[in-house]
User: What shape does this take?
Amino acid sequence: MKLSRRHITVAAAGAIAAPALLRSGFARAAEVNLRIHHFLPPTTNAQTGVMQPWAQAVQEQSGGRIEAKIFPSMQLGGAPPQLFDQVRDGIVDLVWTVPGYTPGRFPNVEAFELPFIAGNAEATSQALAEYVEKFPDAEFKDVVPIAFWVHDPGHLHLTKAKVEKLEDLQGLKIRFPTRQANEALKALNVNTVGMPVPQVPEALSRGVIDGTLLPWETVPTLRLHEICKTHTHVSSSQAFYTTTLCLLMNRKRYEALPADLRRVIDANRGLAWSRTAGKATDAKTQSGIDAAKARGNTIVTLGAEEVARWRQRCEPVHEAWAKEMEKRNADGRAMLREARALLAKYAPR
Assistant: This one.
């Protein structure tokens, strides 16, 4: 669905839930009003822990000349996979989105979505931010990246089944969030179903899927602890999967700003904000675990030997990605080596 600026204006005016508007505390009206669009509810950590602090920072540092409104839950229209095109085409000013919602379009960052690559979100987000500088994806040239980050390590959340070993996965329908998570599940002989995260609660409730891959951070936001009865904690040191995330700004909107306001934006983009975003998502991991425990749910933690079995099954996924990158005239093996080196660089000491 192609959206025009007129459609966006109408959608914004008719939104039932008011956008998150940060109180300026400044006497004069803002010179620049930015719209930030994303696909999750306003209570999600990405909004409260990243987007709102970012908007507050640019507002304060600009002396109130920049003001940002946040439109959650796709209030401005469209579907989650369309967010990148919305910001690229100038329909909105900024978006928070998941590159993996358009499979194969952003292959470079998939190195961090491969199974058993990522660590905690704070370390992995910094590694990803530096990696993107070394291996910029051609798709991102049309936008101004504010920050790249990942969520905390992802695990299995299931309505009824209890997964304690590989064999327990057989016959289950599991939702995957990204292309590489899909490949990892298929390597484990799982029946996979793809869908954006806002559709997951209903799909679980209706039995369309038996479980989903998601980080603990999102469990309370989606109320998965009320829908799922069991959770399988795969690995935290090297995550079974993670998802790359990004906050992006329309390039023309950025370039049209006065030079001093561009400097404010520049001061609030890059590695430091990637670290802030990763740290914010790590901080919410325990809240998801606590929510599941409070409901009396079963949490299974795989032992080292069982994790090794999963890891071994997933090793061909790495090789397949590297070969695919070679077909795109990129050195996939070198990219993987660099990703691992950067993860080691930022790993907690």
